[in-house]
Each structure stands twice: as structure tokens, then as C-alpha cells.
Amino acid sequence: MIFVVMAYLWAAILLYILLGGADFGAGIIELFTSEKNKAYTRNTMYQAIGPIWEANHMWLIIAIVVLFVGFPEIYTTVSTHLHIPLVIMLFGIIARGTAFTFRHYDAVKDNMQKVYNRIFVYSSFVTPFFLGVIAGSAVSGRIDPDANDFLNAYVYPWLNWFSVTVGFFTVAICGYLAAIFIIGETNDDNSRVRFIRKAKQMNLAAAVFGALVFWAAHAEGIPLDKWMFDNPIGIIAIIAAVVSLGMLWYLLLKKGKIIIIRVLAGFQVTMILLAITIRHYPNIVILKGGRYLSLLEHAGQEKTIHSLAMALLLGSILILPALFYLLYSFRRSDVAEH
């Protein structure tokens, strides 16, 4: 049953990166859009992320619950030593959701709309940035459970070049996913060309920050290159990501291929995540001094894991059909409006 729980944890994290990433990316795209195009971009993004926004934080909740119930030592370590970026990320999620709701459903249209817009776009940037910071910190080897002062215990584990560059890389990936997702929601060729250009810009930004991640990893003694290129699965995953990227940009030149394009973008990000994690998985948290926290060695009691696995399996029977119906309902509403 432990492998069932681990599979759900990995799937929940992946789906939050893909769906939540496209959601956050909507605000990132809007942040880097000129004033004259913001209104159209905002409305188009609203149509595109509607069904995702309704459900994406479910995956984050599942991941947190799985860690809390099934892997309490890992949950405690991360939530203690990384509580500062975690709190900022959670405030970003709350602020973003609130601003999104009020700017679209507020009964009074006044100058507060500008405030809501600013909160939405800046929290859309801050939230995935600190999500990336947390992810980078978990594998940076900077978390020291034996630290006896505030800075070493709660600041230095995440305030380092590697974690910061992973944060910026995550922001770029989110913008890239959103730009790819929104291309299929455009109504004219000019808008399609503009969002393709946005996708190219975000793709370039992801490449630049990805290179900076490798630089920071090398500078801080993190064996990221070995994790990705020192095993056959990692190499295959990187090759698959590069090939899917080439196919994606080729298909962007053809209309009517948006479903395939979205699948390729999601597949590309999945392969990148697989390449980064497969070498040290199931060591989900790497501590200072070469120690680690493993999903296999630091799991909860066997009865707890068994009950958690059964709950996840039974919950899927209720959650997944409801999620598919939600997506179907939004898509049907969009078709009716057009």
C-alpha cells in the first residue's frame, strides 16, 4: 500500500504543477502584457482558466494531507524549517483567489478593480516563485534539523541561490503553460500570434533560468547534473522533453492542433520533473550532511498507510468523475456562449 500512497503523492504534486501552473501563469502573462492588451488578455484568461481555477488547489490539499497523515516526520521537518516561504505561498494563494473572485463578481465596478488586478497579478508571480523555492530547498541539502539559531534553522535553508533560481524557473514554467493553454481560446489570428509570441518568451525565460539553476547547483555543490544525466531514465526523460518541445513548436504553426499541443506541453514538464527526481526518489527531502528523509524509510505506521491508501482509492471514485464533469460543464458553457 505504501507504493499506492507514493503514487498518489507524486500524481498530486505533478497535477498541481501542471494545472495550478497554468492557473498561476494566467496572472504572470497578464503581468507582462502591455496596458492596451491587458483587458483582452484578462478576459481570455478568465475563460481559459475557469475550470482549472475551480479545482486546482484540490491537488495541493491532497499532497499536504498525504504528507501529514502518511509521512509525519517529513511533513514536520518541511513545515518547520521552511515555514517562512510556506506562509508566503499560502498568503499568495489566498490573496490571489480573493482578488480573482472580486474582480469578476464584484457587484460594483469602481477603482477597486485596479487594486484587485494588481493583487491578482503580483500574487500570481509570488505564489509559484515560493513554490519553486520550497521545492529547491527540499533537495538542496541546506535543511539542518540540528540548527540551534534562527538563521540556520529557518532562513538559510531556503534563502540561497539554488532555491531562488528554482523559484524563477517555476514562474517561467507556469507562464509557459498558461501561454500554451490560452492559444486555443483565442478568436482571431492576431491574438493567436501574440500568445504564441508570449509562449516563446516564456519558453526562452525557462531556458535561461534553467541554465541559472544548473549554475547555482554547481556553485553550491548540489549534484543536479548527476541526478539528471547519470541514469538512463533521466537521460530518456530529457530526450523526450526536447523532442516534445520540437513537436510542440512545429504544431503551433498548424491550426486545430491545440489539444495535442497542450498534451505535449504537459508531457514536457512531466519529463523535466521526472528527470530531476528519479535519481534520488524516494528521498524526497535531502538534509544537511548527506542525510535524507525517505518516503519508504520515514513513512507512518503500516495501518495508517493502509487506511490512507484505501481512502485515496475510494476518494478517486468520487473525485475524478466530478472533476471530469466540471471540465465538461465549463467546456459546454463556452461552446454555448460562442
From TrEMBL:
Gene Ontology terms: cellular component: cytochrome complex; plasma membrane
Origin: domain of life: Bacteria
Keyword list, A-Z: Cell membrane, Membrane, Transmembrane, Transmembrane helix
Primary localization: membrane
Chain ranges passing through the membrane: 6-32, 53-75, 81-99, 119-139, 159-183, 204-221, 233-252, 259-278, 305-328
Subcellular location: Cell membrane
UniProt membrane topology term: Multi-pass membrane protein
Entries under InterPro entries matching the protein: Cyt-d_oxidase_su2 (IPR003317)
Molecular function via GO: electron transfer activity; oxidoreductase activity, acting on diphenols and related substances as donors, oxygen as acceptor
Gene Ontology BP terms: aerobic electron transport chain
Family under the similarity heading: Belongs to the cytochrome ubiquinol oxidase subunit 2 family.
Protein name: Cytochrome d ubiquinol oxidase subunit II
Organism: Chitinophaga silvisoli
